[in-house]
Amino acid sequence: MNSTFKTNRSLPLRFFCAPPFIRCLLLGTFLFSILVPSLPADPLPAADRILVEKASRSMTLFRKGQVLKTYIIALGTEPVGHKEKEGDGRTPEGIYRISGRNPQSKFHLSLRVSYPSEADRESARKRGLAPGGDIMIHGLPNGSGALGAAHRLRDWTIGCIAVTNEEIQEIWNSVADGTEIEIRP
Predict the structure, then answer these.
(1) Which of 176, 136, 159, 170 is nearest to 40 (CA)?
(2) Distance between CA 51 and CA 47 in Å, rounded?
(3) Which partner from 2, 23, 58, 103 sits 20 to 30 angstroms from 142, CA to CA?
(4) Among the listed residues 95, 62, 100, the one whose alpha carbon sits nearest the alpha carbon of residue 176
(5) What is the three-class DSSP state of 40?
(6) What is the radius of gyration, based on Cα positions, of the chain?
(7) Which of 13, 16, 12, 34 minimizes the C-alpha distance to 24?
(8) Which range has highest mean pLDDT (5-9, 47-51, 147-151)?
(9) Of 114, 93, 95, 105, which is closest to residue 172 (Cα–Cα)?
(10) Whole-structure pTM over 0.85, yes or no?
(11) What is the pairing mode between strands 58-63 and 136-138?
């Protein structure tokens, strides 16, 4: 047995051997970091444009051409390519609008993207397919907020754009219905 292994194994024992004051301080810091939400940042100004870049898994809010904030996102399970039909797991590409919001979503808040456009409907109709719909920018599934940024480790939505619960709250407050959203490959 090497000494590194012995040292690492004894770390939990060191906690219990520490003076009570140190144990309380460490335990209190740990519990505070888990139980108390981080303080909210200053609210963002109203955004007038959203740019999603699928390849870099980023979403940027703009106001008058200036970047307000960029978020790291998760996409549909099949993120490459434009959404062609219902159930394909793809996130659409093109220029749309935020067309509504749902505070009672099964995810922590959701903003509706105006997909499908008339062109999307026509393209799907020509191929005899349903274009799909219900594309949203949303937080995590209700009850799963503790996942936080770990949700970004893989694309998991059915075509939506996912951010953390704290991020969707900030976006929700900054983005009005009618705001343009451009989704690029």
Answers:
(1) 170
(2) 11
(3) 58
(4) 100
(5) coil
(6) 22
(7) 16
(8) 47-51
(9) 105
(10) no
(11) unpaired
